[in-house]
Structures are given as C-alpha cells and as structure tokens.
Specification:
Elements lengths: L10 E14 L3 H5 L9 E7 L3 E5 L2 E15 L5 E15 L5 H33 L9 H8 L4 E2 L8
Parallel strand pairs: 3-6
Antiparallel strand pairs: 1-5, 2-4, 3-4, 4-5
Helix pairs in contact: 2-3
Length: about 160
C-alpha cells in the first residue's frame, strides 16, 4: 500500500431498511391531485438511534441507525401523507480506536453514512406510491447528533452477577 493511502478505521458491513409505515389520508382530492409536492409541504423529523457496541467474531461491531418521520401537507395545509422510515447499519473495526474517534464515528459518521440509503428509500416509496419525485432537504447530521447527544450502549463488557 502506498504511503499516502488512507485506511479507514471502520468498515461498513451492511445496512437494512428495518421499518416502513406509510399512510395516505382518505380524501378523493388526494387521488385527484397530480401536481408535484412542493418542498415547503414536506415536514421531516429525524431521531438518531443509540449506537450499540458488541464483540462479534473478535471484531468490535457497531450497530446504529435512525428513524425519519415525514408528513406531506396538501396546498391547504392538511396532512395528506404520513410515513415513518427506519434504517440500521452494521460497522466493524479490527483495531482499538480511541474514545474520541469512537464517539465521533458512532454519533456522527454512522448516521451520516446511512442517511443517503434512507433518503433513497423514502424517495422511491413515495414516487412509486404516485407522489412523483421529491427532493428532500439536506440535513446537518453533525448538529442533529450534537443536539441529541446519545450515548453508545456498550455490550462488550461481561456483566458480573453478585
């Protein structure tokens, strides 16, 4: 490997969309509406999940994710569509990483890496449901993680019973 090569401390193993809930209101006008949904009619809320740390096959393994709720309003401001989409991802490392690198990865990088996959799923589901292509706003995962400040749940230490 060349001296200038960068080696990642964490490996992205896999992800899964682990929850989808989608419901349209029961109004004929929603079916008759064929116009594109405007970005100001899309409300998003995002909750990061706690990252959990395990030892699996002698590798430190991190599992984390996020849940996004989307509400789409019609022109009159009524809720037309509600949906919730969740994603989980699995990452590993062979090396012991310092506490700061682990915190940064688990709280910021992990959800930031998963967000494009969740965004694509949300876009596809809504498009295939007849709502056309929607552009979701870009999100500042760093600020979101800072605001939520979730701890890493460490399952690597064995519990000693009294």
């Amino acid at each position: 490997m060349a001296e200038s090569s960068v080696v990642a401390e964490f490996d992205f193993v896999s992800y899964k969309i682990d929850s989808i809930s989608f419901k349209m209101g029961n109004e004929v006008s929603y079916l008759l509406n064929t116009t594109s949904i405007k970005s100001e009619c899309i409300n998003l809320s995002i909750k990061l999940r706690n990252t959990e740390k395990f030892i699996i096959d002698e590798k430190t393994t991190y599992i984390g994710g996020l849940i996004t709720q989307v509400i789409i309003l019609n022109e009159a401001g009524s809720t037309m569509v509600e949906g919730q989409f969740g994603i989980s991802g699995l990452f590993t490392t062979n090396d012991s990483v310092d506490k700061q690198a682990e915190e940064t990865f688990a709280k910021i990088n992990l959800p930031a890496l998963l967000m494009p996959y969740l965004r694509a799923t949300m876009t596809n589901v809504l498009s295939n449901a007849g709502f056309g292509t929607m552009l979701f706003p870009l999100l500042n995962i760093y600020e979101l993680a800072k605001a939520q400040n979730l701890p890493i749940i460490d399952h690597t230490k064995k519990m000693i019973s009294p």
